[in-house]
Amino acid sequence: MSTAVLEIATNLAKAIIVLFIIVDPFGSVPIFMSLTETLSEAQRKKVFNTATLIGVILLLVFAFTGQQIFLIFGISLYSFEIAGGLLLLIVSIRILISGSPHGNIESPESMGAVPIAMPLLVGPGAITTTILNFQAYGTLVTILSVLIVLLTTWIILRYVNLIYQFLGKTGAIVIARVMALLIAAISIQYILVGISHFLANSL
């Protein structure tokens, strides 16, 4: 194995590990369960297929144009963190009040886009990590790391049904309510981190 190939393999491993930790599909499985508890198996598959595809597209778009997009619109990463936190907070409140994160007219594809693809899978941390990977390791490593991490995430999501079958309907409902509180806590953390970053860079 040549030095160049070894370097690419090493950089790819680093990029994959960091991005996978940030996306954290295993840690988010209970949240995915609560968000899709009322959907049929076919609808759930559509949600996860859509979420994975949009996640790949978003990360690659931000990898190549993220900094330019922020500059053009005058948006900071802190704004993304706060906006993502507010979005998740709304989702958690809906679950706690009505038992569902979405309205009757919302399609599985829509839920796959928001909030599962963004901000749960592709949040501020994943966007920042991808941009930094692009700057540090280049185009090939960044693209491969995004594809591998999101493919692994898709495989994990495909087996969420086994967890549903194990818990049963009542168990899934209980998990949905408990996870709504966790989603609320995550959303508040996003908001607090965004505010703290903004204050730290403003002083």
Summarize the structure.
It contains 8 helices and no strands.
Commentary on this structure:
The chain has 203 residues and is mainly alpha-helical. The chain has one domain (3-202). Helices cover 88% and strands 0% of the residues. The chain is built from 8 helices and no strands. It has helices spanning 3-23, 25-35, 41-73, 77-98, 108-121, 124-137, 139-158, 160-202. The longest helix has 43 residues, at 160-202. The relative contact order is 0.20.
List the helices and strands and how they pair.
Layout: H1 3-23, H2 25-35, H3 41-73, H4 77-98, H5 108-121, H6 124-137, H7 139-158, H8 160-202
Helix pairs in contact: 1-6, 1-7, 2-8, 3-5, 3-6, 3-7, 4-5, 4-8, 6-7
Q: What separation lies between the terminal Cα atoms?
A: 50 Å
Number of strands: 0
Question: Per the principal axes of the C-alpha atoms, what is the gross shape?
Answer: globular
Specify the helix fraction band: over 70%
Radius of gyration: 18 Å
Indicate how many domains the architecture comprises. Answer: 1
List keywords for this structure.
203 residues; mainly alpha; 8 helices; 0% strand
